[in-house]
Amino acid sequence: MKLNIIIPIKQVPETSNVKMDKETGTMIRDGVVSVINPLDLYAIEAGIQLKEQFGGKVTVCTMGPQTATKALKEAIAMGCDEGILISDRKFAGADTWATSYTLSEAIKHIGDYDLVLAGERATDGDTGQVGPGIAAWLNIPLATYVSKIDEITTESITVERLVEDGYQVLQMPLPALLTVVKEISNPRLPTLRGKKKARVSEVPVMSAADLQLEESYIGLKGSPTKVVKIGYPKVTRGGQVVKAAGEEGVNEAVEELIRFLEAKELI
Prior knowledge:
Layout (H helix, E strand, L loop, with lengths): L2 E7 L1 E3 L20 E3 L3 H15 L1 E8 L5 H10 L3 E5 L9 H15 L4 E5 L10 H9 L3 E11 L3 E8 L2 E8 L2 E5 L11 H9 L4 E2 L1 H4 L34 H18 L4
Parallel strand pairs: 1-4, 1-6, 4-5, 5-11, 6-10, 7-10
Antiparallel strand pairs: 2-3, 7-8, 8-9
Helix pairs in contact: 2-5, 3-4
């Protein structure tokens, strides 16, 4: 038995570098240091481990600008077999609906897959919607918050998923899509051999024309959800200051504190 696995990943800004465009409501990515979405690393590791156990191939893909090639090559250095970039200016500003549509069409174009693995969510948007969206567009079974893969046969997969009160065991037919949580694996570091392979690997690019996408479904114009306003919370720490100088001042401060707590009905 061999498994062909596709892993959609995302290149995201480092947490400290997240900036938003107030006019469009989209994230500013130009000139910002970006990394593989940390939660996607667990999907990558899970896919590599399955390949080591069953054989087959792991293909990693991402939708983004040309600079996202760096994320794909990092995944190859970790042990993935090939990377595919889905890139076109028409994709800019896509919400989760348009993104999942575009990625699902790319996966159809790649074809011949048994399993799609995705991170639980992306740290920049934090929605957790793209993985399930891809499964819906592909019309394949979905399991979210998967913490362990118990068994895989030629026809089905059995997994454990995290739920509020413990774990749930699911068996699904293949092909299927899983979104995974941190408990599923411990991501490995790229090896020297992997880095050499990544350096010489060609990363093909798929455009909107290559995928023959429905224009009204892609990018900012094809996104049914829009950010209409961006605000930044103001952190204010006021408070009442009571100076306690000498024994008398300390007594007054204590009495003031008691009155304050009583007024707040805390004592």
